[in-house]
Amino acid sequence: MAASDAVKVSLVVRSVRAAVFALLCVLLAAGGHALATGAAPPVWVQVAAVVPVFVVGCVLGGRERSLGGIGAAMLGR
């Protein structure tokens, strides 16, 4: 599908996807911390971390990314 033919996703669907993405990212990170240090981060830190991940996921979920764009973003990290 060409970029110009891409289907726009509603804000509700994008928000649900971003919420699931944010929760999974934060829970995986907390699990990794727990395995590495023996203690998970406090719950308030995990809740606070969901908000920026959700916002970024919702903003970037507006359109499909190219493979080159994803690769460049991963290399930039």
The proportion of residues forming helix, as a percent range, comes to over 70%
- Choose one word for the global shape: flat
Distance between the termini: 28 Å
Number of helices: 3
Descriptive overview:
- The mean pLDDT is 86.
- The chain is an all-alpha fold and 77 residues long.
- The two termini are 28 Å apart.
- It is built from three helices and no strands.
Brief sketch in words of this structure:
The protein is mainly alpha-helical and 77 residues long.
Topology readout:
Blueprint: H1 11-37, H2 43-60, H3 67-76
Helix pairs in contact: 1-2
Search tags:
single chain, 77 residues, mainly alpha, 3 helices, 0% strand
